[in-house]
Please model this.
Amino acid sequence: MARYIDCDSHVEECEETWDYLDEQYQMRRPMIVTVEGDPQKLTQQNAYWLVDHKITPKTTGHGATLGGSPPTSRLAHGKQFSIGSQTLMKVEERLADMDRFGLEVQVIFPTVFLETMTDDVRFEANLMHSYNVWMSKRCAQSGGRLLFPALLPMRDAALAAQEVRAAKELGAVAVATYGTAGSHLLHSEHLDPVWQAAVEVDLPICVHTGWSHPGLTWSGTDIYAGQILGFTLPVLMAFHSFLGAGLLDRFPSLRVAFLEAGGDWLPYMVHRMDHYHDIDTQLGHGVRGKRKPSAYLKEGRVYLSVEGDEPLLRPVIERLGAQHVMVSADMPHSEARENAFQEIKERTDIAEKDKEWILGKAAEEFYRL
Model:
């Protein structure tokens, strides 16, 4: 059996994360605010990041979000993982947690950036750069078992392209973004310098779930709506950008993975996009993609992560090929996916040769480990 490679888990950021901000931003570094006697017993989120007089996460009302960062909250302390493991401040404790679940390698994504921390685009870029530098130092202590994708400030294409090149120097195995660049779709041509930079340094693109589109985020009136709509739908929007709107044509060596949205949506999206590609091509509506989206799935450049209990996993494998399906433990978040690898291993509807790819070999290929 292939070694287990977790394509997508997380860190809960801590105060040290911001130690690498430029001097001009040090006075604005995020601060932790704790609320005693907080009535929100549903989330146990009684601690927040305060950035430019705005709190993150926002757990009630329009634009509701949820996250386990900062790690001083009751939510964080109620998890089965130690604070040292969650924050990577004690790398040995995260490695011990990985050992408990049989994980050899883990690729670590951020938590606090799942939503927009500040409206100041340049400040956001510097926050992300500080995070990237900090993660490079944390992962360097793991003996190669903890890896990271560098996060990109996509609301400023020039700064994002600059961060791609910095990512290569920091030792990142990929670059990460969310499904939109603010209200812009990722195939917007002003973002092309970002994808060109990724091609030049040979880093794949990870599109992760997150509250990146302001309109979709605002539409969520509670955490449940926020998770299903604002958090998830941007990934499908990015899928359109890459396979339906010409990005994979303009950058023929680009590799992309769609993470934490599951895989059950893939057959639906591909069927629907193929259908309208044919219709709109016949009607002369100016379809951007040169081919039907299903054709790009056969090129070996598109990957996605799945969960262990997905009922449509077999059709996903048939569409995409097991060589491009990865699995995520999502440690240390609260979605209870840590046993996803065991669930995949125990499934009887998946061939053993396919399981080897899903449990590790596909991630090894995508991240070029």
Observations:
- The longest strand covers residues 5-10.
- The mean pLDDT is 93.
